[in-house]
Amino acid sequence: MLKTKMKNISIVLYKPKYAGNVGSIARAAKNMGIGKIIIVEASGFDHEEMQQRSTHLAADVLDKIRYCKNIGEALGKFNYIVGTTARLGKARGPFISPRAMANDIVNISQKNKVALLFGPEDTGLANDQMRFCQSVVTIPTSREFTSLNLSHAVMILCYELFVASSGEAQELVPTLARSNELEGMYGQIKTLLANIGFLNPENPDYWMMHLRRFFTRAGILSREVKIVRGICRQLEWYAHHKKT
Amino acid sequence: MLKTKMKNISIVLYKPKYAGNVGSIARAAKNMGIGKIIIVEASGFDHEEMQQRSTHLAADVLDKIRYCKNIGEALGKFNYIVGTTARLGKARGPFISPRAMANDIVNISQKNKVALLFGPEDTGLANDQMRFCQSVVTIPTSREFTSLNLSHAVMILCYELFVASSGEAQELVPTLARSNELEGMYGQIKTLLANIGFLNPENPDYWMMHLRRFFTRAGILSREVKIVRGICRQLEWYAHHKKT
Question: Is B37:B10 a contact under the CB 8 Å cutoff?
């Protein structure tokens, strides 16, 4: 029976604000068998406060935290990135539930490195970080108060993954393209679409967001990235060739 | 479809030690639509610390906390009491999972008042409190570190109840493109790729098959077909425009 490969799961915290939350997250991660945390664009957290919340049993997770200066570097080696948002009602969907995410990740985690990406406590993830994500999870809550404590949100996702780690047999997912391969492809598509006048120069990311969602929903493979880039190259060559 | 009656659910904390945890629990409860907390054999928590963790949006839950001097009094009016423990391997079972508990409570909560009972942070519930319980939940964890933060444990149970309160954890599947929309798109792509010399005229379907696989794996939507066709049209226009 297929189980989530917990060792292929990492938690990526974008600009967390509070040492206490980082400590609580280390504890939650360790409770659920996850050992890797990456912190992006934030550092200098009070170690004592972190350790108090993590307890000494999760001190090893704290000590191994990797700090990255930018999100591209942090996510570059991951094959599948799961974003999290409380913001329903904005046109950034589709959003999936933590349980559906966990069911997907059972398969994906077999051969792929998976990042769970969380935004800052006060604002959550912005579009600039969301665009890296292959899927976006919204934790169901009461309408009266939708904002979860960051460590609670992390715990719910880790818990669902852990429960799914004893789950049903499903089909095997092959190795997906890495984030830096995807970004290279998106950059090339964006340039091409700008050149042919398809993208509005004032808001080039509107259509790109739709394309990103579509490509990543498919779970695009390395070799498919190469096909798409080959087509783009040929289109560029053709356009240039016609010009001269 | 039957849903958990969240208004019939209360959280009962037996001898909690830390004001911060009580505040976090108030927030978690409110996030999941639970408004009632009872604290047994403990009081005098620092209000500022509680409120900092609950945030002002859960201040009403904090203000309504009922303090009881003994557990019999606290639990007397409840019809069904769910205990929680991390202690596996002791002869106090049978233990059920949070999910199984939530499924049971859907029915039970229709006509019964349900208490979720949690013990102190360090020791958990002892037999003296366990004997009140109709069922006992153990949250699944990694064997390396089984002890959850109290507010995390509360959150997981409340979350499972909340998910069960919305009936099935169903995903909204949007309407996919119809076959004739897809075929129109493939025809247009094939023409374009032939025109720019990307497709081998002797075997045009080789790359097209790869593209078809990719597009259909994604479950492409109507509006996405329109975007792709818009891009193709623009590319054709651009190529033609350059020519003349």
Answer: yes
CA atoms A29, A32, A35, A36: torsion sign = negative
CB B50 within 8 A of CB B60: no
Across A38-42, A238-242, B66-70, B225-229, least confident range? A238-242
* A13 CB burial (10 A radius; 0-12, 13-18, 19+): buried
Contact between B149 and A215 using a beta-carbon 8 Å cutoff: no
Strand locations in A108-174 (E): 114-118, 135-137
Neighbouring-strand partners of residue B66: B38
- Exposure b/e, B136-167, CB count within 10 A at least 16 = b: bbbbbbbeebebbbbbbbbbbbbbbbbbbbee
The terminus-to-terminus CA distance of chain A in angstroms comes to 60
pTM of the predicted model as reported, rounded to 2 decimal places:
0.77
SS3 A116: strand
CB atoms within 10 A of CB B135: 16
Phi and psi at A24, nearest 5°, equal: -60, -35
A positions 127-186 inside 8 Å of B (CB): 139-142, 144-149, 151-152, 155-156, 159, 162-163, 166
CA dihedral A11, A16, A20, A22 (to 10 degrees): 20
Q: In whole angstroms, what is the distance from residue A42 CA to residue A221 CA?
A: 32
Per-window interface: B 201-230 vs A, CB < 8 A: 207, 210-211, 214-215, 217-220, 223-224, 227, 230
Looking at residue B220, its amino acid is: I
* Domain annotation for chain B: domains and CATH numbers: 6-165 (3.40.1280.10), 179-243 (1.10.8.590)
Query: CB under 8 Å to A231, separation ≥6 — which residues?
Result: B193, B198
Q: What DSSP line would sit under B51-108, residue for residue?
A: HHHH-GGGHHHHHT-EEESSHHHHHTT-SEEEEE----SSTT--EE-HHHHHHHHHHH
**Amino acid identity, residue A165?**
S
Blockwise average pLDDT, block size 10, chain A, 244 residues: 87 98 98 97 96 95 96 93 77 77 91 95 92 90 92 98 70 73 91 86 83 80 88 84 59
Subunit contact B196:A235, Cβ cutoff 8 A: yes
| Residue contact A235–B207, C-beta within 8 A | no
**ipTM score of complex:** 0.75
Chain B residues touching A214 at Cβ < 8 A: 218, 220, 224, 227
Partners of residue A100 in chain B, C-beta under 8 Å: 169, 171
